[in-house]
UniProtKB/TrEMBL annotation:
Lineage: Bacteria, Pseudomonadati, Myxococcota, Myxococcia, Myxococcales
Name of the protein in its database record: Transport permease protein
InterPro entries noted in UniProt: ABC2_TM, ABC2_TM_bact-type, ABC_2_transport, Nod_factor_ABC_transporter
A GO cellular component entry from the record: ATP-binding cassette (ABC) transporter complex
PANTHER family reported for this sequence: NODULATION PROTEIN J
Molecular-function GO terms, alphabetical: ABC-type transporter activity
Length: 297
């Protein structure tokens, strides 16, 4: 009599499938990496720069005033002084041609300084405190504000430079690389100065007062309104050490050539030094602005 057939254990199919699937590699997904330190710094700079530029274009009155104010100043002042302006050794130099580089620098100065008034407003509204609490460094915050304000200043100055042919500027004397370098360094230095002042002054009224006491005399004593050759001994000494003089003379040399600086008596004391002096000027005041906003309340 045959014994009953016993059923052999069948392999667990589900176990085999699990073992097979365990050898299959899982799909690789790219790991999200935290942004590096340099990327965070650049993001801070880019956001602040774009914010100032966008805010400028959303205010049509600032765009109109950026072009109307220097034009009126140049024509009115030029017409008023044209009959009495004389420079020894340069009888053919009229006042409108002499004052044009100074007005270009004035546009950069006033545009950069007025753009940095937003530091007081942003600080009062708490925006800057939020930015300073972020991952960006103090230097990145200063560079973002300085680049945004400088971009606005350079845009306004570029619009005014469209009238350069009326001031006797020709392609033969125009030095575009020197002009751009001088204007960029001047704008960065002046915005750095403006940020440092705006951080210490808590009201826009006080900021305007400081501007009229410090910054406006810097422009007047830069050779923008009267030449160094005709100044008295004391004023001539102040003008020689005024960093704004190198801005005006750099623009003058870029527009008219070295002969223009020679005519007003500055070629022997400042020719070729504009870019190095303005580079030091911009570096010092950007650093001073970074130190200023680092102080605790």
């Amino acid at each position: 009599m045959n014994a009953p057939a016993t059923s052999l254990p069948t392999p667990d199919a589900s176990g085999e499938e699990e073992r097979e699937l365990s050898h299959v590699d899982a799909p690789a997904f790219p790991e999200e990496r935290a942004p590096g330190g340099l990327a965070l710094q650049w993001s801070t700079v880019r956001v602040l720069l774009a914010r100032d530029v966008v805010r400028f274009f959303r205010q049509p009155s600032r765009i109109v005033g950026a072009l109307a104010q220097p034009i009126l100043f140049w024509f009115v002042i030029g017409a008023g002084f044209s009959g009495s302006f004389r420079v020894e050794g340069a009888q053919d130099l009229d006042y409108q041609r002499f004052s044009f580089p100074g007005v270009v620098t004035m546009v950069v100065l006033f545009s950069a300084i007025f753009a940095t008034i937003s530091v007081i407003e942003d600080r009062r509204e708490g925006f800057l405190q939020s930015v300073l609490a972020g991952p960006g460094s103090r230097l990145a915050v200063v560079l973002g504000k300085a680049l945004g304000s400088s971009a606005i200043a350079l845009l306004q100055a570029s619009l005014f430079l469209l009238f350069a042919p009326l001031a006797g500027v020709t392609a033969a004397t125009l030095d575009v690389p020197l002009l751009l370098t001088v204007m960029v360094l001047s704008a960065l230095g002046l915005t750095g100065m403006g940020i440092a002042l705006a951080w210490w002054v808590r009201s826009t009224a006080g900021y305007h007062a400081v501007m009229s006491i410090v910054l406006l005399p810097m422009w007047v004593l830069s050779g923008a309104m009267f030449p160094l050759k005709g100044a008295g001994p004391l004023l001539a000494w102040v003008m020689r050490f005024n960093p704004m003089r190198f801005s005006v003379e750099g623009v003058r040399r870029a527009l008219y050539g070295a002969e223009a600086s020679l005519a007003v008596g500055t070629a022997s004391s400042g020719a070729g030094l504009e870019v190095p002096v303005l580079l030091v000027f911009a570096t010092v005041f950007l650093g001073l602005a970074a130190v200023s906003i680092s102080r605790r309340e």
